[in-house]
Amino acid sequence: MENLLRPLIVVGGSVVLTLVIGWATDFLLRKADEQHHETPLWGLLRRGRIPYQLVLLAALLRGSYDEAQLLESRREGIGQTLTLVLIGSTAWLVIRIASAIVETSYSRYAHSRAQRDPARVRRVRTQVTLIMRVVSAIVGVVAAASMLLTFPAFRAAGASLLASAGILGIVAGVAAQSTLSNMFAGFQIAFGDMVRIGDTVVVDGEWGTVEEITLTFLTVRTWDERRITMPVSYFTSKPFENWSRGTPQMTGTVFWHVDHTAPVDAMRERLRDILRQCPAWDGRAYDLSVTDTTPNTMQVRALVTAKDADDIWTVRVTVREQMIHWLTAEHPYALPRVNTADATPPPSHNGHRPSPDGVPHQQRRYHGTARPDR
User: Fold this and answer.
1) Which residue in 66, 88, 50 sits closest to 7, CA to CA?
2) pLDDT one-digit tens code per residue, 117-169
3) Which side of the chain, N or C, has fewer Cβ within a 10 Å radius?
4) Which residue positions in the chain have pLDDT lower than 50?
5) Longest Cα pair distance anywhere in the chain, in angstroms?
6) CA 55 – CA 52 distance, rounded (Å)
């Protein structure tokens, strides 16, 4: 009877004690989160309750397993398994705690500077993301090394591995040259303020928003919801456009090709009216000028402003559409005209240029909206 109750008491007591301590800790964290709304730390720490309970259970079972006298023939294997679970759950818990502390610090910083300096907030967010990835990688490597060192065979081979570490390091460095260059480029992007999460960029002719930055690659979400994944070394070795660098305010252009008789002054007044009714226009500036001419048309350019890249796109398409609609309805003669007359043959011997139908050139008829040459 004692041989049956002892394992039950040891194992069951460890499980019950783990659940009680885990529930009590979670209850205290929940109460602290309700009382301190100014910081999200306590709520974020609750994310670690599962690895926390695993650590408690593995530690209790590892310390009391000898007293249970259960499966004596497999004691070493079970002890080894509990040790591995303890190391893995401890690493998991450390990552969750570090993540909670870093996110709390970032949220406080972002809350205090979101309105005054949004660009710096995005920069800190990029740095925090990369720092957490580095911390997670370091903790994972240490945990994996600790697990391997629990096996006697790996401890015996440790000396020979250390002796050949120099040669292996050189070989690994040459083999992973591209990966290492991307990792260093990732640090350069994070702390050099070249590009940040949320920036609007143009790379390889594609316009989009930086969605994710890691140590090796960067993801850009385009305007049509595609994702472009590029190595971070691209941004340190090739030129690219960053529309969010400095201030996000932008100036956009809209072009029209109209007839030479188009009412430019009336178009300028209409542009002002369109912008006043467009919520995306920030009210900073606007202008309309004739920038080029051809034998048949002239080019009219409008300059408009907006607070960011998304709004400048909205302003441009709104101005282009409404101006064309207004010209069509109010000034149809201002639209480009196409000459549909027959081609003129070479002049005859008497100096006159007869038309194909025998009508003198001076009496030729023009079709459609074409104007005779003057």
Assistant:
1) 66
2) 676 677 777 778 877 887 888 888 888 878 877 777 666 554 454 445 455 45
3) C
4) 1, 158-159, 161-163, 165, 168, 171-172, 174-177, 351, 353-374
5) 135
6) 5
Residue closest to 39 by CA, chosen among 95, 106, 96, 108:
108
Q: Which amino acid is at 80?
A: Q
Question: Could you tell me the two tokens for 35?
Answer: 């009382």
Query: What are the phi and psi torsion angles at 221 (to 5°)?
Result: -95, 115
CA atoms of 5 and 12, how far apart (whole Å): 10
How far CA 247 is from CA of 120, 151, 200, 308, in Å, comes to 11, 57, 12, 9
Give the DSSP H or E segment for 32: helix 2-35
Beta strand residue intervals within 214-311, DSSP E: 217-222, 227-231, 241-242, 250-258, 281-293, 298-306
Q: In this structure, what DSSP letter does residue 40 have?
A: -
CA distance 197 to 211: 6
Q: How far is CA 329 from CA 55, 186, 297, 334, in A?
A: 76, 55, 19, 11
Whether the CB-CB separation of 264 and 290 falls below 8 Å is answered with yes
Residues 55, 93: contact at Cβ < 8 Å?
A: yes
Report how far residue 120's alpha carbon sits from residue 124's, in angstroms, rounded to the nearest whole number: 6
CB contact set of 167 (below 8 Å; sequence gap of 6+) = none
| Residue 92, both tokens | 């998991």
Write the pLDDT tens digit of every residue in 210-226: 888 877 788 898 888 88
With contact defined as beta carbons under 8 Å apart, do 179 and 137 qualify?
Answer: no
Question: How far apart (Å, rounded) are the C-alpha atoms in residues 187 and 232?
Answer: 10
Dist CA 74 CA 76 (whole Å): 6
The pLDDT value recorded for residue 356 is 46
Stated pTM of the model: 0.48
Q: Quote the CA–CA distance of 71 and 24 in Å, as a whole number.
A: 32
Do the Cβ atoms of 209 and 195 come closer than 8 Å?
no
Is the Cβ–Cβ distance between 248 and 309 less than 8 Å?
Answer: yes
Measured CA to CA, the distance from residue 65 to residue 126 in angstroms comes to 46
Give the residue among 259, 261, 249 at the shortest CA–CA distance from 200.
249
Q: Which two tokens stand for residue 316?
A: 């441009």
